[in-house]
Amino acid sequence: MGKIQNLIFFVMIPLVVFGCSKSYNQRTEVRNIGIKETIILSKIPSKGNIHGIKIKISGKIKGESQVSLILNNEEYKTNKLEGNFSFSWGGDWYADTAKIIYEPVNVKNGNVSIEYEFKDI
């Protein structure tokens, strides 16, 4: 291969692949999907001033439930969960914690995973 082809193959492709990935550095789960649960997400202590958050919620539910992100003691974002699901929330965020409320409606079984990352400067 020529020098330019080597550059593209060994430098540019990994940068694009890994630079565009949506990695999350923290993870938790709903412990008991049959009962309402408040989950507090917290930044890693070594993080600086927080300016953003990204959250991915995924899993599988037999039945129906909902999950909400709370901002200033009000529902900021809410999604219904049923069957196989995977969605992301993100945006500006200026607190070191975030509150998520999981609420079952008619759940028989399943699992809910929450991956998240607080963005600092």
**Helix segment count?**
1
Looking at the overall shape, the CATH architecture is: Sandwich
Strand content: over 45%
Structural class by SSE content: mainly beta
The number of domains is 1
For the sheet with most strands, the description reads: 5 strands, antiparallel
Shape: globular
Low-confidence stretches: 11-21
Q: How helical, in percent, are the residues?
A: 10-25%
User: Class, according to the CATH hierarchy?
Assistant: Mainly Beta
User: Helix-strand pattern, N to C?
Assistant: HEEEEE
CATH topology: Jelly Rolls
List descriptors.
single chain, 121 residues, mainly beta, Jelly Rolls, five-stranded antiparallel beta sheet, 1 helix, 5 strands, 62% strand, globular
Topology:
Blueprint: H1 3-19, E1 26-29, E2 37-42, E3 50-71, E4 74-92, E5 97-120
Antiparallel strand pairs: 1-5, 2-5, 3-4, 3-5
What does this protein look like?
- This protein has one domain (24-120): Mitogen Ypm (Jelly Rolls, Sandwich), CATH 2.60.120.510.
- It contains 1 helix and 5 strands; from the N terminus they run αβββββ.
- It has one helix at 3-19, and strands at residues 26-29, 37-42, 50-71, 74-92, 97-120.
- Strand 3 (50-71) and strand 4 form a beta hairpin.
- The longest helix has 17 residues, at 3-19.
